[in-house]
Amino acid sequence: MANTCVVGLQWGDEGKGKIIDVLVKDFDIVARYQGGSNAGHTVVVNGEVFILHLIPSGILHAGKECVIGNGVVVDPAQLLKEIDELRARGVTVGDNLRVSDRAHVVLPYHKQLDQMAEGRKGGGKLGTTGRGIGPCYADKMARNGIRIADLYHKEHFKELLKTNLEEKNYLFTNLYGGQALSWESIFDEYCGYAERLKPFVCETVEYLNSAVAAGKRVLFEGAQGSLLDVDFGTYPFVTSSNGTACGVPSGVGVSPKALKRVLGVLKAYTTRVGSGPFPTELDNETGEHMRQRGKEFGATTGRPRRCGWFDAMAVRQSVMVNGVDDIALTKLDVLDDQPTLKLCVAYKCENGQLKAFPSALATLVKCEPVYVEMPGWMKDTSGVQTYRDLPAKARAYIRAIEEQINVPVKMISVGRDRAQIVTKR
Ligand code: IMP
Q1: What is the model's pTM?
Q2: Whose Cα sits closest to atom 20 in ligand 1?
Q3: Spatial separation of the C-alpha atoms in residues 30 and 217, rounded to whole Å
Q4: What does the buried/exposed string (b/e) look like for 383-397 if buried means 16 or more CB atoms within 10 Å of the residue's CB?
Q5: Pocket of ligand 1 contains residue 38 by CB under 6 Å
Q6: Looking at residue 191, what DSSP letter applies?
Q7: Residue 61: what pLDDT?
């Protein structure tokens, strides 16, 4: 299959992990291009649940190469924990995993800063995962970051660490009323991580470009979702990277021309974890029912996810910026017992109906969804294997989504297991 990017089109947690797991047999390499251990990609294999935060989902398949690209922010402790856990469960992690030496390192002060800054914001907090993602990317952009390659040049690493901590400790003690961190203990800890990570660390840009030139098929695994993208999401309630397909070239160092297909992953309804606007949110019994039926609790933080109706207005923007070719629709089965379904097709605002998803937060928070109602199918779809065996009303719901976003749905997931997937031809 042509080089493909699998990208979430909502606020993350669309079920990308499962879709990648289904597709991976047709690829040689799976590469992560952004985000960090804020991601939580769930894959269920023969009833066994795997949650991957940093390692691409392809690791669960023998013979596939996995790459953590330069655009990812790597928490070495988390990466090593993930490697150890996978190995303990019989998964091979060795020369099938490559970690870019250009990737930035998440350090303890990033996590502390993330948590303290959130605490200070009080009611206005973003609801981050607390994994230090924002502060690490901020340092990267401010050119204060420490990259994996730096860990292997100890004197240089020490100097960078000391300089960075001087500034961070000033903030911790003077602004946040917290404790200063010692560079010595971080230095020793991270030199230890660097030693253990050495077999995986390499120059991945050259490797990926040679692979693409040799005709190897690459699957680019997006994390978070397009509405959490730092440029195209509901800013400032977003993550700090480009989770859209726009992040692929800079996140792994291949030409945009290498990307041939963008597969968008959409949940059959909408969820969001953390703060921020969510026009179709159901803060009621229906939303609670979706949360329980869909097991909508964060794979990384365990936080309950906010649930609501499908929002075609928001998704249309995601389709546009990603240039989506086709869709994998997930968790259709969660809607099996909904007597009536609502689909948001537009937003109403003070000045009438909006033509496009608004950029301004102040506008978005005032938007009212305009719904079309559809009858639910009230039948169990979790065992359905072919499109024509889906209830007619479920097919009508899928058709309505396709018409609203003007992209064909190619795969429909009706349960957590690998086998619970319907392909629409
Ligand atoms: P951060 O990425 O930890 O800085 O969090 C910023 C926002 O993105 C918060 O609302 C998080 O809940 C959300 N977020 C980050 N990663 C994910 C994810 O993988 N799935 C869903 N939401 C996420």
Answers
A1: 0.96
A2: 12
A3: 9
A4: ebeebeebbeebbeb
A5: yes
A6: H
A7: 93
